[in-house]
């Protein structure tokens, strides 16, 4: 998907229930960035890579835990919400206090709301443990 010659998405064409909302958001966000920064470097990097399994893989800033973040606001008002939480709240519903999102696709960079399930924190930890009994989070390196 392109906007004024800039690539907003790479890979497959997004499908599913939230594809049109994603496309609209991408164009609106790019218009805001262009209005503020002109031809800034942030306009050149695609937001997502759409994979054949439906994952929307975040292509921009990530934190040390491997989650994508969106920079919003300036100065003391600057916030950097996780991109998967942001898109879930924009496209589906607000996340209630005490609840978290589980990536059913097991990809922390995926922002597709169809791949996110609202669960309690304890359920999310139990699922993570089942997926990786050697330790929650990153796989441990095996030295041979």
Class derived from helix and strand content: alpha+beta
CATH topology title: Homing Intron 3 (I-Ppo) Encoded Endonuclease, Chain A
Strand content: 15-25%
- Give the overall shape, derived from the CA principal axes: globular
Give, in order, the helices and strands.
EEEHEEHEEH
Gap between N and C termini: 45 Å
Q: In DSSP terms, counting alpha (H) and pi (I) runs of 4 or more, how many helices?
A: 3
Strand order within the widest sheet? 3-4-5
Low-confidence spans? none
What is the CA-atom radius of gyration, in angstroms?
16 Å
CATH architecture, by name, is Alpha-Beta Complex
**Overall pLDDT metric:** 80
Helix content: 25-40%
The biggest beta sheet, please?
Answer: 3 strands, mixed
Number of strands: 7
How many domain modules? 1
Salient structural properties:
144 residues; alpha+beta; Homing Intron 3 (I-Ppo) Encoded Endonuclease, Chain A; two-stranded antiparallel sheet; 7 strands; 27% helix
